[in-house]
Task: inverse folding
């Protein structure tokens, strides 16, 4: 197997004020993956990313980006990663074209190899190429940030909370574009608070809490670890109250004919729940089940770890 796109070992960060942001993180992000870095506010996501980007100095540990050690080979490590930061910062008096050309200059991309107009076209800003950055809408600025991260054609693109404060339509556009990049082989890492977003987009997810990795798995495996399952049963008669004597989990009456039963799937299967209902003399008309979603996994993991 090829070396991971990003490989982190024992990464620690203590800020100047004594705040321990990372307690020793181990993390491998496979090449070609769409990887979600999830965690509540202050978990250490930005610190991790900023260390990889060379913007924050680590206290201990090591990291390799596309095989390049960030200490031994910082230039190559930096050239292998494009970071889309959380905050929008541009010089208002540069045009998108100039912003990208300047960035290309910073990364030492020779003029002949620059793809400024191609990138602007890809993020649908070609008609704004020569407008001042200050005249762009919030959404356009976001797209310009993505464009900026791509000028040196990095194999890894990291998006730090890219859709915070972005409207739904733009979010969809942004994700469509990120998916496209991913389909062409770019390794994509995104940090997000939006659990549904990570669930929908990422093939692997690591959850960080209080500077520690508390989960790191394929999205579907992570979802399968959620223990609660709900079976919703339509019964053959009207009820006034949820029956409380079934002994199969929490029973809730929805309307007069539907029962939602939440049970722990380690303890019993849906069949046993249905059996208990028929034993209680209730006829079953229809059945559906709901798996727990990522939010349940996230909450159970981030609740169980002390600060
Ligand atoms: N420059 C700094 N000086 C001191 N403490 C810091 C600094 N930057 C971050 N921290 C602290 O380190 C911890 C981790 O912060 P970090 O920004 O990495 O979290 P995060 O998971 O990215 O959260 P968010 O999503 O809110 O950005 C927090 O407790 C934060 O207050």
Result:
């Amino acid at each position: 197997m090829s070396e991971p796109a990003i490989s982190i070992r024992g990464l620690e960060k203590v800020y100047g004020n004594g705040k321990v942001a990372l307690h020793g993180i181990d993390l491998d992000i496979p090449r070609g993956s769409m990887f979600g870095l999830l965690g509540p506010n202050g978990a250490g996501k930005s610190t991790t990313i900023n260390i990889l980007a060379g913007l924050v100095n680590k206290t201990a540990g090591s990291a390799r980006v596309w095989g390049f050690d960030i200490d031994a080979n910082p230039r190559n490590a930096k050239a292998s990663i494009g970071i889309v930061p959380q905050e929008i910062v541009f010089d208002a008096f540069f045009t998108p074209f100039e912003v990208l050309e300047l960035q290309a200059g910073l990364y030492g991309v020779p003029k002949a190899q620059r793809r400024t107009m191609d990138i602007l076209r890809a993020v649908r800003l070609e008609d704004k190429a020569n407008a001042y950055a200050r005249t762009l809408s919030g959404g356009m600025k976001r797209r310009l940030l993505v464009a900026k991260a791509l000028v040196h054609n990095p194999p890894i693109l990291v998006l730090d909370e890219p859709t915070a404060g972005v409207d739904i339509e733009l979010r969809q556009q942004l994700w469509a574009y990120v998916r496209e990049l991913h389909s062409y082989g770019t390794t994509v890492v995104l940090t997000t608070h939006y659990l549904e977003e990570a669930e929908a987009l990422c093939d692997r997810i690591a959850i960080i809490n209080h500077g520690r990795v508390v989960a790191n798995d394929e999205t579907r495996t992570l979802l399968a670890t959620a223990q609660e399952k709900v079976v919703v049963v339509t019964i053959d008669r009207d009820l006034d109250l949820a029956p409380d004597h079934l002994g199969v989990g929490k029973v809730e009456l929805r309307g007069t004919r539907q029962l939602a039963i939440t049970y722990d799937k380690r303890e019993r299967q849906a069949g046993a729940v249905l059996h208990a209902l028929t034993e209680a003399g209730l006829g079953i008309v229809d059945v559906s089940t709901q798996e727990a979603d990522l939010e349940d996994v996230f909450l159970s993991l981030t609740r169980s770890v002390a600060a």
In short: Residues 31 and 128 are 33 Å apart (CA to CA).
